[in-house]
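Hi X.,

You mentioned you wanted examples for the new student's onboarding notes, showing what a folding record looks like when two proteins sit in one file. Here is a clean example. The first protein comes first, with its sequence line followed by its structure tokens.
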Amino acid sequence: DINECDGSPCKDDQYCLNTDGSFSCKVCDATCVGCTGEGSDKCKTCAPGYIKEDEKCTDINECNLPEKVCIRENEDCVNTKGSYKCVCSEGFEEKDGTCIPI
């Protein structure tokens, strides 16, 4: 068997899996920018919104950062995978860029 993966035949967001007489390209984990294999522990670097912890790329909880990311009055931060969103607090709704009482 020739290891076709030696020539890096896959795209930047894929890793190569050698098989008998062939190879296949597999998509990197969503937490990665480039990878050497399957999973968040095989990332070359972490995607935006992720940080390397215990050899794996894990989500950054932007809502727990010292500097507030949602700065409007009556607004809450909601963490999402790789990002966050700002939503009006319960009992408030967004109108013209501000959170007003319902």
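Then the second protein repeats the pattern, sequence line and then tokens:
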Amino acid sequence: KMEEFLNLTQLKTSLKEAILLDYFTAGFWWAKEMNFSLIQLSGFMDLLNFALENLSSKHMTLGDNLKELERAMSAIGETESEEGSDLNLFSIEQAKAIIDYLVTSLFEHYKAYEYLFHSRREEPVISNE
């Protein structure tokens, strides 16, 4: 189902698509184990996508991406939410767990993800030989 949702069409031959499927599937199951509500699960998946998009599309450095995460997460726990912010639906404890998860799943492997998105790789040549 995740493969269809993410519109991954070359999963069997694309390392990038396989890694993206693993990233989002692992995040989904982690959030389910945390007993997030459906709205929280959606917000968490948006946050995973936000951090990955910062790296892949915006070419943000690790430091800049961490600053963006801090900015996005700073509204959590406040009584008045900023306009359009869905992240205040997490408790402080959940927010800390989310940050820990992002650190271990994405930020500790940032160089590998940068390589995945930004380095040119030659296509392997496969023949009958």
